[in-house]
């Protein structure tokens, strides 16, 4: 009986640690950009959205409606750059690798691209 309890406790602890690891790998949450501003990445209509929550352009929508195209990759065509004119949109890609979110926006196919690595805010 004691062994059964210990085995059950071991399974419970293992599942909790796996759930914690999964949560740490989630794309959702706050991310710090290279310029020091912070973006909040969240789900919107089953897709990925991101807007600035700190910095000089708080509230600015960085991307909207990116669809999941791989285990840790999202793509969409509604990405914006705070330093570009407001009417411009870009083809965007976001790739999650641990505590880094690589965000890239491209115009005119893949010929004109900008890229940032965002780090998770704890």
Q: What brief labels describe this structure?
A:
122 residues, eight-stranded antiparallel barrel, globular, disordered N terminus
CATH topology: Lipocalin
Give the number of DSSP strands: 8
- Specify the structural class: alpha+beta
Tertiary shape: globular
Helix content: 10-25%
Q: Please state the average pLDDT score.
A: 83
Rg over CA atoms, rounded to whole Å, is: 18 Å
Domain tally: 1
How much of the residues is beta strand, in percent?
over 45%
Highest CATH level, the class: Mainly Beta
| CATH architecture call | Beta Barrel
Largest beta sheet: what is the strand line-up?
1-2-3-4-5-6-7-8
Terminal CA distance: 41 Å
Reading the helices and strands in chain order gives: HEEEEEEEE
Unreliable segments of 5+ consecutive residues: 1-24
Number of helices: 1
Textual characterization of the structure:
It is globular and about 35 Å long. It has one helix at 2-24; strands spanning 29-32, 38-44, 47-54, 61-70, 73-79, 90-97, 100-107, 112-120. The model is unreliable at 1-24 (pLDDT under 50). Strand 4 (61-70) and strand 5 form a beta hairpin. It is α+β, with helices and mostly antiparallel strands. It has a single domain (27-120), classed as Lipocalin, CATH 2.40.128. Strands 1-2-3-4-5-6-7-8 form an 8-stranded antiparallel beta barrel. The chain is built from 1 helix and 8 strands.
